[in-house]
Amino acid sequence: DSGVTQTPKHLITATGQRVTLRCSPRSGDLSVYWYQQSLDQGLQFLIQYYNGEERAKGNILERFSAQQFPDLHSELNLSSLELGDSALYFCASSVEGGQADTQYFGPGTRLTVL
Amino acid sequence: DAKTTQPNSMESNEEEPVHLPCNHSTISGTDYIHWYRQLPSQGPEYVIHGLTSNVNNRMASLAIAEDRKSSTLILHRATLRDAAVYYCILRWYSGGGADGLTFGKGTHLIIQP
Description:
The structure holds two protein chains of two kinds.
Chain A lengths: L4 E3 L2 E4 L5 E6 L6 E8 L3 E9 L2 E5 L6 E5 L5 E5 L8 E8 L9 E2 L3 E5 L1
Parallel strand pairs in A: 2-11
Antiparallel strand pairs in A: 1-3, 3-8, 4-5, 4-9, 5-6, 7-8, 9-10, 9-11
Chain B lengths: L8 E5 L4 E6 L8 E7 L6 E6 L4 E2 L4 E4 L5 E6 L8 E8 L15 E6 L1
Parallel strand pairs in B: 1-9
Antiparallel strand pairs in B: 2-7, 3-4, 3-8, 5-6, 6-7, 8-9
């Protein structure tokens, strides 16, 4: 158990819909990362937040957005969903977000878009 | 990110040592070498990281070449639980911190009983 929690575990929705994925980091971790894992693209970094502020952006689509709240939990919002958005979404947390930091990953949310 | 190259797959026997290689010939002086693994149906898991010197922890050892252009993750006594995809990742210093991890395809490690 990494200490990072993600809800829900599974989500099934239809194209065009909007969903919100939630992540609670490990106690004391200030940095939260979101990743997408699909069969064709592998594991891709989407976005990073540090202490409530956006710090880095990866391959995140404009239809996707995220935020980190004062209690440090984070939400990833996916809108206008397409079939290709079906994937595993992982959240990770680390103490500061530096290059020597260890990232701890949650169990993931499996999103299926029908 | 500097690029890493790993074999697609490797096979080993249970209770034997496993040496997983990683080439990173374009590594810069401030890049850290990280290893993560992903067990089936789980999120990635940190294994070990280092900068210049060899590193040991309870999970594995990391041997870094003197020129830092390659490294080897060593599992001293593989168990069936070590069957996973192993990712070698370089992280660089970008002033304000580091971006997310850039995962390649990794090495699929198969452990035979």
